[in-house]
Design brief:
four-stranded mixed β-sheet, 4 helices, about 20% strand, single chain, five-stranded mixed β-sheet, about 160 residues, Purple Acid Phosphatase, chain A, domain 2, alpha/beta
Length: about 160
């Protein structure tokens, strides 16, 4: 089992195409492309932590969840509806987990400091600038694909383009 992280897919949300320079002509193309890229790297038994802003509505979320590989966890973002469809292994405002001997603190927003950050823990998030041992796992900086923990830890991550 591998563990992946992503955020800010915004399935079914046309507004994101106006905010970020995504390589999709419309929402349908975006949704199909994001699903294909997800399933190209995530296996049935893999674990995926989605760090918020998954889909525009619960109905869209339910339809998309059925098409995505892996065991999925949702860390709520500011654009996630209050009620979430079945299909998530867990739904929470943030988490603290350990994978591969590393403590991870996934949340939609970056923390200025997180539990154990000075003892090698990582704050994983979807929004804003990067600080010490933080990684933006948003699809906009990850080739629109979930990213594995070894990749996060071995490569520097570029910052998301901020809309003007």
């Amino acid at each position: 089992m591998r563990t992946f992280f992503t955020s800010d897919t915004h399935f079914g949300d046309h507004r994101v195409l106006n905010l970020y320079p995504r390589p999709f002509a419309n929402v349908t193309e975006m949704d199909v492309g994001l699903i294909a890229r997800w399933n190209a790297v995530v296996g049935r038994d893999d674990e995926v932590w989605h760090l918020g802003d998954f889909a525009r509505t619960p109905a869209i979320a339910a339809a998309v969840l059925l098409q995505l590989a892996g065991r999925k966890h949702l860390v709520l973002g500011n654009n996630d509806p209050g009620s979430q469809p079945r299909g998530w292994q867990s739904v929470s405002p943030y988490a603290q987990i350990e994978r591969d001997g590393v403590t991870l603190v996934p949340c939609h927003y970056p923390f200025r400091s997180c539990n154990g950050q000075h003892r090698r823990s990582w704050d994983l998030h979807g929004h804003m600038e990067l600080l010490l041992r933080q990684a933006d796992v948003g699809v906009d900086v990850g080739d629109y694909t979930p990213v594995s923990l070894p990749t996060l830890m071995s490569k520097g991550r570029k910052r998301r383009a901020v809309p003007a």
